[in-house]
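User: Predict the full complex structure for these chains.
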Amino acid sequence: MRRLVVVGASLAGLRAAQAARNAGYDGELIVIGQEQHLPYTRPPLSKELLHGTQTRDQCAFPLGELQVDWRLGTQAVGLDRSAKQVLLADAEPVAYDRVIVATGCRARQWHGTGSELAGVHTLRSLDDATALAAELVPGRRLLIVGAGFIGCEVAASARSLGVEVTLVDIAEHPMLPLGRELGQRWLGMHQDHGVDVRLGVGIEALTGAGRLATAELSDATRVDADAVLFALGSQINSEWLADSRLELNPAVVCDSTLTSSQDPDVLAAGDVAAVPVPLAGGLPTRIEHWTTAAEHGQLAGRNALLEPHERATHHTPPYFWSDQYELKIQAVGCPALGARAELIEASAEGDRLVAACISDDDHVVGVVAVNAAKRLAWYRRQFTPGVPPALSELRAELSQDASTLGIPAAGASL
Amino acid sequence: MKVHVDMNLCQSHGECVVVAPDVFELGDDDVLVWQEDVDESRRDDMEAAVNACPMMAIRLED
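Assistant: Here is the predicted structure of the two-chain assembly.
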């Protein structure tokens, strides 16, 4: 191979480029990125960058001696697999021998009445975060639509800055993927911190003279606000592959070596890749977590140098986290696949806990830890083979383990 | 080589513990402890730990 092209210059794309070089690849290496910025890390955008405890520069990934031909501010608009070229919006096509697709996601936009007003935000990029940070002035009123991870993290950040926050979601509880029991806990936490949480309602329209003034909700109430953040989840950046004849679901469907199902010279990594996940029954699944993007990128960069039969597989169970107020939430596995959640460890003070997300057949498909990082590390090892442990076996093991936070009484509620 | 961890950045994700459990460990208080002097033969693992850290808190020094 003489030329490896990576489309996408965020975490997965960067790790792919680094891994290829670390594996000894010394051919041409081109990384195409839509944003003008060199790769940067996104988790601080909803937290430290808003608080002002981390600067934009501190979000940049260290690049060391990495030898890459960066093509930034450049949008890929097509993949011509017969000519082996990446087509660009306003530049000559870039030929490849192998290509890694790492174009990730973008924030889902809201297109209702008033969406064009000043003060309407989404949060995905560094520039989005800078614009939102400028709105977070003590005493101002922020409306957040969507009580998922980003919405809840921004709510916590904004409250700590003295901003008045209203949090709205059509769901019945925040943090939907964590299930009802944990979601109720989160609801109470945000309310305790002074967030006005409105559940089971959506946004009908935004009004204001040039700038947002009022939001009309679906329950016919109104919320006055200086700014609104739409935290409605993400959309996959795969439209540019529509004519590529790759299998899209709409993510790029891959095998567990991150090789696309249609073409051994096309690999995918990160949020844009649908890869078989053992905990999800082996179905091609997108996992939008930081660590998965890092792992995918690294594996794709190495595998792109190898012939298909030599390529290694990805099998690390998903891991993610969220920081809100004084709580560190960490999770392993696929909590969203659980039918119910049960408390399996809790400290006497109740400030640290571990909850198991349990399938209908009583297997633990995910574990959520609150302020219990060392314990979560133990659970990650229980998931390593990728097969969900049986709840009864896990409980038996915990009862013999002196290092737990404490075993709650059977049936203790979350 | 020397392994430095910026404890102002570390948030106890434990990615480094997964990569190299013999070098990095979370204590009972969830605070990271680690070996500062690591043999050169472990360079690949240490670089993997640097890249795995979501907080970019780990730095190597020759």
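The CA atoms of residues 26 and 52 of chain B lie 16 Å apart.
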